[in-house]
UniProtKB/TrEMBL annotation:
May be involved in transcriptional regulation. One of its GO terms (cellular component) is nucleus. It comes from Myodes glareolus (Bank vole). This is Zinc finger and BTB domain-containing protein 8A. Pfam families: BTB, zf-C2H2.
Length: 441
DNA sequence: CTGGGGAAGGGGCCC
DNA sequence: GGGGCCCCTTCCCCA
């Protein structure tokens, strides 16, 4: 006979013990804040702690201490609360950091929930688009700045704080003298308690700010009306505002993983032009809207910081394959037939490739003699390297197999700087780069 | 301090 | 949906 409430009751008891610091035999130090927990609970919840505590299992009589510095105490609070309650308090602002921390701690369940959270937000974004379509006709007379009743019901609207009340550190909402929208996602208990960005993510926030500044006008202004009108064919499916509102409210409540969607004072999204129906996918982190899901996936990398394409020559990582290709052609293959010094057009007859560290560039024979740098012979092999990956046979010239994957040293020595494109899991490599050095005593 | 050039990175869109 | 190209903007370095 199984008593279903036993598990939750046990977890509650453990959580209570944690809160009261009863039998806690493990301390986790996160940016100076100490968290107390139970060794066995951490062991059972995190692959990372399992590894750590396994290594220190011989010293079980001693209290264990782990120190982390790359995620904030707030983030670890979310993680630890999940461990002891099974409830993950995600918001649009902490989901990235929580997922990053969970990745480091090897908590696959949390990672999955974070992914679901992001995915659900994308779905919601699409629904929001649909809702806009239903409203755009009625609101066409508005100036697009002030529509206070646009969001209601379960769609929480955050009040637009006056610009003078906010500092630049308070996120990407205030940019270039304009009030940009701020999106966040809340589980029900946290809808009014957004967590500030951690210090180490301020840079990311600034980067997002930059991105917002760039992307914001583009979705509203930089559209081509001709094409848009031709493709705006789904207006027949529009429903009235009230009907749509009800529909959205219902959908919002039934969003995957029980997340609710909260949107700030969305200036831009309230001012969609008439040709926007062709844009379908809305970024959950900014106001950017794209037509294709693949484009949104690509766009999301600028928020997540994911860079799955490392350069095999210099190690620099890129978020996009074409950027990697461009980088490799420019930096490591000297494909530009321009003398770097005098900027004149050069050929293999009038110039040569110069190797300088990991970089390659061309110099004309005249500049070459002036500079006196040793050049690489412009042989047939070098000529082949300069073939654009799009132009030639990918298998033979660009995408080399794993067996052909050579170290950079070898690449330099034999003068064949071929690019090996190897997509890697961002989280895996970056884990190694992180400076988290837990200290078990 | 400033302007120019190169590289990086983001978006649109075609194949 | 992925790959890739083109265009544009921004950042950084250097003269």
């Amino acid at each position: 006979m199984e008593i279903s409430s036993h598990q939750s009751h046990l977890l509650q008891q453990l959580n209570e013990q944690r809160r009261q610091d009863v039998f806690c035999d493990c301390s986790i130090l996160v940016e100076g804040k100490v968290f107390k927990a139970h060794r066995n609970v951490l062991f059972a919840s995190s692959g990372y702690f399992k590894m750590l505590l396994s290594q220190s299992s011989k010293e079980t009589s001693q209290p264990a201490t782990a120190t982390f510095q790359t995620f904030s105490p707030d983030t670890f609070t979310v993680i630890l609360d999940f461990v002891y309650s099974g409830k993950l308090s995600l918001t649009g602002q902490n989901v990235i950091e929580v997922m990053s921390a969970a990745s480091f701690l090897q908590m696959t369940d949390v990672i999955s929930v974070c992914k679901t959270f992001i995915k659900s937000s994308l779905d919601i974004s699409e629904k929001e688009k649909d809702r806009y379509f239903s409203l755009s006709d009625k609101d066409s007379s508005s100036n697009g700045v002030d529509r206070p009743s646009f969001y209601s019901g379960s769609w929480q609207e955050e009040s637009a704080s006056p610009r003078s009340h906010l500092s630049p550190d308070q996120g990407p909402s205030i940019v270039s003298g304009k009030l940009w929208p701020k999106y966040s996602y809340h589980t029900a208990p946290q809808r009014n308690a957004q967590q500030p960005l951690a210090n180490e993510h301020r840079k990311d926030a600034l980067k997002k700010t930059k991105h917002l500044r760039l992307s914001q006008p583009s979705q509203v202004v930089h559209l081509k009306p001709g094409k848009a009108e031709a493709r705006a064919s789904d207006s027949s499916s529009r429903v009235s505002q009230s009907e749509e509102q009800v529909q959205i409210d219902a959908e919002g409540d039934s969003a995957p993983a029980g997340f609710q969607y909260s949107q700030g004072s969305d200036v831009a999204s309230r001012s969609f032009p008439d040709d926007l129906p062709r844009l379908r996918f809305k970024c959950p982190y900014c106001t950017h809207v794209v037509k294709r899901k693949a484009d949104l996936k690509r766009h999301l990398r600028c928020h997540t910081g994911e860079r799955p394409y490392p350069c095999q020559a210099c190690g620099k990582r890129f978020s996009r394959l074409d950027h990697l290709s461009s980088h490799f052609r420019t930096i490591h293959q000297a494909c530009k037939l321009i003398c770097r010094k005098c900027k004149r057009h050069v050929t293999d007859l009038t110039g040569q490739v110069v190797q300088e560290g990991t970089r390659r560039y061309r110099l004309c024979n005249e500049c070459l003699s002036e500079v006196g740098i040793d050049s690489l012979p412009a042989d047939l092999e070098a000529e082949q390297q300069c073939v654009s990956p799009a132009d030639g046979d990918k298998d033979s010239r660009w995408h080399l197999s794993e067996e052909e994957n050579r170290s950079y040293v070898e690449i330099v020595e034999d003068g064949s700087a071929d690019l090996v494109i190897k997509q890697v899991e961002d989280s895996e490599e970056e884990e190694d780069e992180k400076e988290i050095k837990p200290n078990i005593r």
